[in-house]
Every structure is written in structure tokens, then in C-alpha cells.
Request: fold
Amino acid sequence: MNDIEALRTAVEMEKESLSRYLQFARKTKDVSGKNMFIRLSTDEFSHMEMLNRVLENLMEQKGWIKVEIDKSEVEKVVPKLRESDVKIRTTEGLDELSALETALELEERGIKYYGEQGQRAESDEAKSMYRRLEEMEKAHFDLILAERDYIKNTGFWFGVREFSLEMY
Reply:
């Protein structure tokens, strides 16, 4: 896969995630859950715009451009959530849980794809961009995982058991 094909694929992945997150936001009844999906879709839209700029530059044979990707609102929230005992209440019911499972799959796919493209990339600008996108998708994954675990009431928070009453 060449650089242009890789970027076109990335743009399509971001479009799909954006579309799905907006659909989930419309269907989610709880305001916190709705806002989470809107934040995620905003990030995906930003990714898509940035990838399109890089793609256009490559198609015009100007080479890779260095892109700065600021921390997203999701990336700012995730560390705070990990440090606190406060859980955000999002959605309830099977439809919302199904949406979160789908969202996890989308983010997992993005993490894997950007990781692979970062390793494959030859230019420093491409490596840096893919690495940064991978980090952002990991933050999205962590937020969605926390939401899913909370709804399922598993006793896990960010994939880690919150507490145990069992004695060893």
C-alpha cells in the first residue's frame, strides 16, 4: 500500500467513525452519553480534515507536511477520570451497550491501523502523524471502555478491577 492509498483508507475510517458516533449520539438518551459521542465525532472530524490536507499535499507531489495535533478534549478528560473515583453516567440499555461495543471495535481498528502505518512510514512527518493519531485513538478507546464497564457494572474501571472484598 502506498502513502496515498494509506491516507485514503485512513480518511474513510475516520468518516465511518464520525458517521457512527453521530448516529449513536442521536440514539443515546442520556445527556452525558450523547455528549461523549459528540466529542468523539468532533475528534474524528478533525482527524479527517487533517488527513485530507496531508493527502492533498501528497497528491500535488509536495511531499509530507508536518502536522501538529493538539490534545483533544477526550485526551484531557481520560487522565482526570483515571485519577478520580467519579464515574460519568452515560447510557443505559442494550442499544447503548451495543453502540459502545461497536465504538470499541472502531477505535481498536484505528489503533491497529495507525500503529501499522507508523511502522511502515518512511518519513519522520508520517511516523509522527500516525503515532499521534494512534495515541488519540487509544484515549478514545479508554473513554469508551470506561463507559462500557460502568454500564455493565463489572467492577472494572479502565480495565482494572476497582476493588475486591475477597481475602487472599
